[in-house]
Amino acid sequence: MAIMVTGGAGYIGSHAVAELLAKGEEVVIVDNLQQGHRNAILGGSLYVGDLRDADFMDTVFRENEIDAVIHFAANSLVGESMTDPAKYYHNNVYGTLCLLDKMKEYGVQRIVFSSTAATYGEPENTPILETDRTQPTNAYGETKLSMEKMIKWFDHAHGIKSISLRYFNAAGAHESGQIGEDHQPETHLVPLILQVALGQRQHISVFGEDYDTPDGTCIRDYIHVSDLADAHVLAVEKLRQGGASGVFNLGSGNGFSVKEVIDIAREVTGHPIPAVAEARRAGDPAVLIASSDRAREQLGWKPKRDNLQAIIASAWAWHQAHPQGYKDWK
Ligand code: UFG
Known about the structure:
Layout: E1 2-6, H1 11-22, E2 26-31, E3 45-48, H2 54-63, E4 66-71, H3 78-83, H4 85-105, E5 110-116, H5 139-158, E6 161-167, E7 169-171, H6 189-197, E8 204-207, E9 219-220, E10 222-224, H7 225-240, E11 246-250, E12 256-257, H8 258-269, E13 275-278, E14 287-288, H9 293-299, H10 308-321
Parallel strand pairs: 1-2, 1-4, 2-3, 4-5, 5-6, 6-11, 7-10, 8-13, 9-14
Antiparallel strand pairs: 9-12
Helix pairs in contact: 1-7, 2-4, 4-5, 6-8, 6-10, 8-10
This protein binds uridine-5'-diphosphate-4-deoxy-4-fluoro-alpha-D-galactose (UFG).
Uridine-5'-diphosphate-4-deoxy-4-fluoro-alpha-D-galactose binds at residues 76, 78, 116-118, 168-169, 187-189, 192, 204-207, 218, 220, 258, 281, 284, 288.
Pathway: Carbohydrate metabolism; galactose metabolism
Protein name: UDP-glucose 4-epimerase
Subunit structure: Homodimer.
C-alpha cells in the first residue's frame, strides 16, 4: 500500500517524502510543479499533474494502491491571497474538493492535511490552543480553514478520517543537505536573511518595530521542517491504527522576535546582515506561539531540533551549498 503525497515536491512536502522513504513507506507524489521542484524529490514515483484534472487523478489512483493521502498541494502566500483570492479558492478549496471526491470514489479513507496557524487570525491566547477561536485575517488562512471543514464533513458523511496539522513557522533544511527551502518569489524571513548573508541582497527589511512586544518586532514560533515532517508520519500511523479525526498545532512553543532571528543568523553565518526598519506588513499578528501539547500527548510527537541556532544552521548549510536554490541542479 502506498501513501499519496500531494505537493510532495514543495518545501514541507519534500521533507515529508524524505521521512516516509526513511521509514520504508511506498510513496506516490502528485505535484503540478507550479511551486514544487523535481529535484526536491528523493525517491518514490512522481506524477506531474493537477488535482483538479479528473482523468489525471484517475490514472494515479488506478495505477497505485493508495492507503492514505497527505495533502500539501496549495498556494500559500498571504499577500498574494489578499490581491487574488480567486486563485486560492480555485487551487486550494476546489482542488481539495476534487481530491476528496476521488478519495471517496476509490475508497481511500485516511487523509493528513497541511493546515496553518493562519486559521486562527489574531490570537485570543498565547500560546494558542486548538480550541481557540478561528478567525482568519487573510484569504489564505480562510481557504485553509474551509479545507479543514470540508474534510470534516467528508468524515461525517463518508467516514474519511483526517488529521489536520496547523503549522506555525516552518524553517530549516534536511540534515542530508539535499533538500531545503526555495520559493519563487521568496517572502519568508529566514531564507531572506540568509540571502543577505550570501551577498544576494543588501539588507533585510524589518516589517514594523512598533508592535507590542519587548523589542517592538513580531514574535513567531519557528519549527524545523523535519520535525513537521515527522508529525505527518505519526499522523498516518495514528489513522492506520483507527485513531479518531482531529486538529493539531505544530510548533516549538518558543517565540523569537524578528530582531532575535536576525541576531541568531548573524551568529550562525558570521555575516553582519544589515537590517533596515520598514512599515508593518499588512495582516501580521504581533505574536504567534503554539501550544503543541495535544500533538505531543495524542500523536506522541516530540520536536527533536527545537533550537533556533540549529534550525538556522541547517538552512544555512543548504543555502551555501545551493545559493540559487534548485536552479543550481538543472
Ligand atoms: N518579516 C520581516 N521581513 C521580511 C520578511 C518577514 O520582518 O523580509 C517578518 C514578518 O513580518 C513576520 C516574520 O518576519 O513578522 C515572519 O514572516 P514570514 O513571512 O517568514 O512568516 P509568516 O509568519 O508571515 O507566515 C508563516 C507562513 C504562512 C503561514 C503563517 C502562519 O509562511 O504560510 O506562518 O502563522 F500562514
